[in-house]
Amino acid sequence: MTARDSVWMHELTWPEVEEYLGGDRVAIVPIGATEQHGPAGVLGVDALVAITLAEDAAQRSGVLVAPPIWFGDSAHHSAFPGTITLRTETLTALVADVCRSLARHGFDRIILINGHKGSNLPGLVTAVRGLHERELGGVMFAVADPLHLARSAAGEIKETNEHHCGELELSHVHYRFPGMVRMDKLTDAEVDFEDVFGGFVGNDLFGPAPDGVEIMWSGAEQRAFTPSGQFSSSLGVTEEKGRRYHDHIVGRLCELIDWMRGYDGPIGRKDRG
Amino acid sequence: MTARDSVWMHELTWPEVEEYLGGDRVAIVPIGATEQHGPAGVLGVDALVAITLAEDAAQRSGVLVAPPIWFGDSAHHSAFPGTITLRTETLTALVADVCRSLARHGFDRIILINGHKGSNLPGLVTAVRGLHERELGGVMFAVADPLHLARSAAGEIKETNEHHCGELELSHVHYRFPGMVRMDKLTDAEVDFEDVFGGFVGNDLFGPAPDGVEIMWSGAEQRAFTPSGQFSSSLGVTEEKGRRYHDHIVGRLCELIDWMRGYDGPIGRKDRG
Amino acid sequence: MTARDSVWMHELTWPEVEEYLGGDRVAIVPIGATEQHGPAGVLGVDALVAITLAEDAAQRSGVLVAPPIWFGDSAHHSAFPGTITLRTETLTALVADVCRSLARHGFDRIILINGHKGSNLPGLVTAVRGLHERELGGVMFAVADPLHLARSAAGEIKETNEHHCGELELSHVHYRFPGMVRMDKLTDAEVDFEDVFGGFVGNDLFGPAPDGVEIMWSGAEQRAFTPSGQFSSSLGVTEEKGRRYHDHIVGRLCELIDWMRGYDGPIGRKDRG
Amino acid sequence: MTARDSVWMHELTWPEVEEYLGGDRVAIVPIGATEQHGPAGVLGVDALVAITLAEDAAQRSGVLVAPPIWFGDSAHHSAFPGTITLRTETLTALVADVCRSLARHGFDRIILINGHKGSNLPGLVTAVRGLHERELGGVMFAVADPLHLARSAAGEIKETNEHHCGELELSHVHYRFPGMVRMDKLTDAEVDFEDVFGGFVGNDLFGPAPDGVEIMWSGAEQRAFTPSGQFSSSLGVTEEKGRRYHDHIVGRLCELIDWMRGYDGPIGRKDRG
Amino acid sequence: MTARDSVWMHELTWPEVEEYLGGDRVAIVPIGATEQHGPAGVLGVDALVAITLAEDAAQRSGVLVAPPIWFGDSAHHSAFPGTITLRTETLTALVADVCRSLARHGFDRIILINGHKGSNLPGLVTAVRGLHERELGGVMFAVADPLHLARSAAGEIKETNEHHCGELELSHVHYRFPGMVRMDKLTDAEVDFEDVFGGFVGNDLFGPAPDGVEIMWSGAEQRAFTPSGQFSSSLGVTEEKGRRYHDHIVGRLCELIDWMRGYDGPIGRKDRG
Amino acid sequence: MTARDSVWMHELTWPEVEEYLGGDRVAIVPIGATEQHGPAGVLGVDALVAITLAEDAAQRSGVLVAPPIWFGDSAHHSAFPGTITLRTETLTALVADVCRSLARHGFDRIILINGHKGSNLPGLVTAVRGLHERELGGVMFAVADPLHLARSAAGEIKETNEHHCGELELSHVHYRFPGMVRMDKLTDAEVDFEDVFGGFVGNDLFGPAPDGVEIMWSGAEQRAFTPSGQFSSSLGVTEEKGRRYHDHIVGRLCELIDWMRGYDGPIGRKDRG
Predict the structure, then answer these.
(1) Is residue B136 part of a domain?
(2) Residue E115 lies in a domain
(3) Which of B92, B213, B252, B261 to mutate to test the interface with A (most CBs of A within 10 A)?
(4) Which chain B residues contact residue C68 at CB under 8 A?
(5) N or C: which end of chain C has fewer CB within 10 A?
(6) How many domains does chain E have?
(7) Which GO terms describe its biological process (chains A, B, C, D, E, F) (predicted)?
(8) Confidence of residue B272 (pLDDT cuts 50, 70, 90)
(9) How far is E141 from E128, CA to CA, in rounded Å?
């Protein structure tokens, strides 16, 4: 791979990054997790999701991507072998340091792409909200999560309830990283949401939510209520679903990049920051 | 007020709390904020919301409430006089210490009621998720937010978009704390969401959300894009709307308390914690 | 209650606070504790003390009060149900964040009123000493404790040794918050100071002190050496003692406010801060 | 010097300390400061005070002393050259680590001797109060300060008000460390307490205190209100005063050690800790 | 790629990792940096070094590798665009959390492979030294650095002094990742060590060292004394040198793995940990 | 001792330090440890090493020395009575605070002298590397360790392998502090490096190192593999060896001081810092 072919900063030299900064200021930071994804999904699913979304959006839009963060906030999966979790405080510190470094070089439109639906958000938001208020007023930050970027499309693509290790998540990885979903291990195992969470937690991340609350559960408890690690059926995994899901989110990310690039609103002004 | 009239721990003696713990184990912790709520709402709106929900649910269900936390994560409002904000890390530490204290006495069903829609959630979730995984496996934690508990009802009650200082929030406080909304200062001032956030952030907290992201903004930026502090119109404030909104949420909280009390599922078991 | 009747920031709108700041710069922060106060005193005694002193001094002097901090450093009471304690580090962080917020708005005379005799002082002093040296040189801070403000008067009012849950403390709360002292539970239970602390710790917080040291004790140990939680007799509680004690301290606080308002000495100058 | 002549752990080998622990369990930790002491006192005055009290009490009582901590909480003196200050948090962490180490070896009666009147106490108390509650319930901790140990004697010895760099403090060091007080630089310079602190702070650390509060001042402010660094006159320094002051405190420390050695009360029991 | 072809945990499912743990307990954690490597080396050089050493040693020895940490302690390079640095504290927390996660699953022989010569060591050692003493006594930790593993071989392979961006480092990456060294940008630019560091810092990381000290320099200073970022000449880069260097280190790592696997000495015993 | 005889800041008054700063800006900070040094060496060996090197270099060069830090990073020795260890984080914070204080007064050439070979370096480097990058760019920092300053001379002086409690270390202390090595307890006890560390850790700190790694060991493990605490033989201790070793290092330190004093290179410039 030559320099001009790569959107990854770690595959560029510093003069190549300097040249980019002469013309553009957007940086993407992909953040995933290394955690159990049931019998079929590899531990890196969430990181792979962030990596492929970042890479493809960056290639289409011509922006740069920082090296990936492979670890996230996965304590609730930590009773399954191979799960590696950061304390929320560590994740926050890590993301803040990466953003500080980028800002020092002049990147002032920073997009965090979270591949680990929901669970990373407290750590990520804490990091960039604090940075923006107290240190980096001149940098505009966006936190992007597939769950929120695919709202309008997920319902049309998926056939069943979608939750951890579900049909959409695994279709996505299967499409982009063939072999990273063991297609012979797909299963209809799922959590009994009523039994575990009453009616207070929804069983479809893209479906209508109940009048609900957040209930905390630990790694040990998770292994007790889903011995496979699966939260919703993965039987419906297909490459085609993955393609549609991926293309929708990448398209929306490109719109976000375009909007941030040309942004002239009240946020992230150098004169105020 | 005599002991038996009060659900507030700070209005009870220690033998009275000890007696309660002989029969029940549920505690509520109300967490608000002290932050600008536009020209009409007092700075304590979010704390008052948490306090009244906690108090009324506790009275109906016969459980106890810890003294209120009046401060939350309000940096984005901090350019308006009177706003008092905690760093997210401080909020997390504070909530964790309160929960540790309750757990030491045997409270093992703890419900955080958040009166500060959304913004406190990273701090609160970080606190209790970490506690439950690493220290207090035998305690069941729920984080309750009006935004999520009123999902099914808000649409029927409100007439306009609801956001910070909006119709529902102020009706709620007006109903429960007459005088705490200056009815002569209601206004239709609102944020131009398209200008500030493109199409990436929704303008109705109870409405359908766009394929969106989270955009961070600072206190100084907020004061620039909404000089009144108002995010959506408060013209529609009425006591009746407040009553319906309040009753719906309190009702749902009581269902939550009942469910947690009788919970026999895999979470918060003493033998595993 | 209307805006002009209230000294509490949380009962004011931001324009009302802004108006105040046009004329005055004093803020009071009341800090208490939620901890056992024997068979007769409610858990909130220390917070109620701070609240009532803050409120009455503010009303007389025409200054504003931040919402109360209900929690303090009470680990040594934590074996009694209902006690909620912060680690000293948490209390320090919390108070520092509140003061930073006030200072941002222009409050530059900040008085902490501590209702939790002695035990909170390390945390409070650490917070504002560090802030004043390193961040907020232009703000003048005072830490006010009833123990120190009533030195000259306590001896004339009380009839017995005064310590935790003693005659003066409970008279004070009984006078200002009728019902918050269970008058039928007053007791002459007290700690055997000689047995527990040799002659190295005094048994009267307002009396002459021995050539002594500080001895640390834990919550569990406290419950062992005072099963009731009482340190000195509460039999002498009367409304009249509470009134005299309260009025003396409020009077002295008003003198403090006047002095700080007109202060022209070397501390808290804007040009140096 | 041979092993048996020394009370200092750093002058003993590990088998010699092990032998001591076979018979006794008391350890002293001397904590001072390195801060300006006016034109006559060396920067190490507070550390020298702690060192000599620890050494002499240990020799008389036959116990061991940890190496000295030369630094304390001296930010308010930090505008004078040579002052070295720790943040309170650092002092707390340092003292806690030293105590943890001692406790690991079986020292279970630990006496902190503070040579830096008052200012170190928040840090020291925070350290050992937290340790005793949360980690080292089986260790008994005392925090000893000359200010409190000389209460009954100071009035008889000193001739003037005593404050920072005053007559007693410097007499003490002059007596024990000849040359460490520049006798030709004694001065009657002093702070104008009324001007700086109103009537709210006392001008004699051993005298009757006003109905007062604590006022924070910074290093820069201190240099403004006392250009010499002196708080009260040092003209009365004599070796004889130093001797009487020293002997009184050492005597009381020995009583403390005896009492702690034979203590059979409720604190620091192994079976509870 | 199928499961059995991969040594990377993120390319395995949790049951596949569980199966591995039935037979072996060794895990490798590769840690690099994202920092300038002169005009020819990409920013990811140090991470690529750690990745390829980990991967090849793992493949030969049949052990597993955690996902890579792409960021290290690179503040001294931070004035060059694209450098991303963690504070030492963040790196320490990150590595500790990764190791804690691995240990929870039963990995008890953990090898950190550092691709960022020297600079990461304080953070890495702090992390695992503390973990091993205080939390994970039953886990054996090794910190492996190419600088130390190639001591005996480097002299024979290289032709010039070796320092940051030197001949050996870039040959290594050129051999394993063709294209990641811009061969048309090699340069003989180098730091004038005598001018910058006197005779107190050596100019060859594999050469004899002077009677020296460590001198700290900042990112801004580095850019001043080496405008290209180069510390020693890279003109001698060849694939063959890279191959010899790589093979030597991988060979030694495999010996380390074998030794740790069969280790029966006093470190990392379960019965003591 | 009079002021002019002392290089120790704690033996000077603030005007005396101020006078020094009018002519010179160098400060030395000696950092040791309090840890077991076998049957013959006192616990303070490492601190005594730092103290004597600092004192003698300062006297010869005419610079000042801060009071000593008696504690370091000694967890691996902590199973032997009398060892007092700081967590690395505490050591880092402590050293940073001391350096901040010195820098405030205008000391801008700061030399840390480490008496605790190797083990303190992570903490010390973390402290001053971070300070120099983020806070004190105008201060030049050197970290000096006898191990590195005696490289060229040790081989000629010593007769056996040198490691913890070895011939050189104890000769050094014996020469400078007669009595602090119990000459009747010298021993040839040593660690079996092959058994404990395979061939991956060298058995002579001044000898050629293997292609090695760092292996962590705990305090408990150390006591298991060296019941005496000795790592290499101390039988060869003589005053003469100590004298040669000491004089060599002091000489080199004086060269360092001279070089730093006259330094005109790119590091620690006021205009950039």
Answers:
(1) yes
(2) yes
(3) B213
(4) 70
(5) N
(6) 1
(7) riboflavin biosynthetic process
(8) low
(9) 7
Rounded distance, CA F123 to CA D176, Å? 36
| pLDDT tops 70 at residue B145 | yes
In this complex, how many residue pairs, one in chain B and one in chain C, have their CB atoms less than 8 Å apart? Answer: 183
Q: Which residues contact C135 (CB under 8 A, 6 or more apart)?
A: C100
In degrees and rounded to multiples of 5, residue A181 shows phi and psi of: -115, 125
Helices (H), chain F: 14-21, 45-61, 88-105, 121-134, 146-149, 151-157, 167-176, 193-197, 219-225, 239-261
> The domain containing residue E54 runs over which residues?
9-206+216-263
- pLDDT tops 70 at residue D221: yes
Closest F-chain CA to D229: F14
Q: Is residue D270 part of a domain?
A: no
ipTM over 0.90: yes
Are the CB atoms for B256 and A200 separated by under 8 Å?
yes
Q: Is D52 helix (H, G, I), strand (E, B) or coil?
A: helix
Rounded Cα distance, E114 and E117, in Å: 7
Over range D67-93, report the average pLDDT: 98
Q: How confident is the model at residue D272, as a pLDDT?
A: 58
In this complex, whether C and D touch, counting 3 or more CB pairs under 8 angstroms, is: yes
E29-80 residue pLDDT tens: 999 999 999 999 999 999 999 999 999 999 999 999 999 999 999 999 999 9
Q: What is the pLDDT of residues C206-242, one digit of tens each?
A: 999 999 999 999 999 999 999 999 999 999 999 999 9
C-alpha–C-alpha distance, residues D52 and C161, integer Å: 36
CA distance F58 to F225: 39
For residue C21, the domain's CATH number is 3.40.50.10310
State percent of chain C over pLDDT 70: 97
Please tell me the distance from the alpha carbon of residue B104 to that of residue B101, in angstroms, as a whole number: 5
Gap between the Cα atoms of A60 and E34, Å rounded = 24
**Is it the case that residue F3 has pLDDT exceeding 80?**
no
Judge contact between E246 and E175, C-beta under 8 A: yes
Q: What is the mean pLDDT of residues C143-160?
A: 97
Paired with E112 in beta bridges are E29, E143
Chain E residue with Cα closest to F224: E266
Option in E3, E84, E98 nearest A66 (CB): E84
**Please, which residues bridge with residue A114 across strands?**
A31
Judged by CB atoms closer than 8 Å, whether chains meet at F15 and D39 is answered as yes
Touching subunits of D (3+ CB pairs, under 8 Å) are C, F
At residue C5 the predicted structure's pLDDT band, cuts being 50, 70 and 90, is confident
Number of separate helices (H) and strands (E) present in chain E: 10, 5
What residue of A is the nearest CA neighbor of E42? A13
Question: F249-270 burial by CB neighbour count: b if 16+ within 10 A, else e?
Answer: bbbbbbbbbebbeebebbbbbe
Evaluate whether D60 touches D250 at the Cβ level (below 8 Å): yes
Size of interface A-B (CB pairs under 8 A): 188
Question: Which tokens sit at E75?
Answer: 């503040």
Q: Is D1 domain-assigned? A: no
pLDDT in tens, C6-58: 999 999 999 999 999 999 999 999 999 999 999 999 999 999 999 999 999 99
Predicted TM-score (pTM) of the model is: 0.97
Q: Do A14 and E81 touch (CB under 8 A)?
A: yes
A140-144 β-sheet, strand order? A64-65, A26-31, A109-114, A140-144, B214-215
Instruction: Please identify every stretch of chain A with a pLDDT value under 70, giving residue numbers as ranges.
Output: 1-4, 271-273
Extended strands (E) in D69-193: 109-114, 140-144
Alpha-carbon distances, residue B10 vs B60, B65, C129 (angstroms): 19, 9, 30
**C-beta separation of B54 from B30 below 8 A:** yes
D140-144 and D109-114 beta bridge pairing: parallel
CA of residue F261 relative to chain centroid, distance? 21
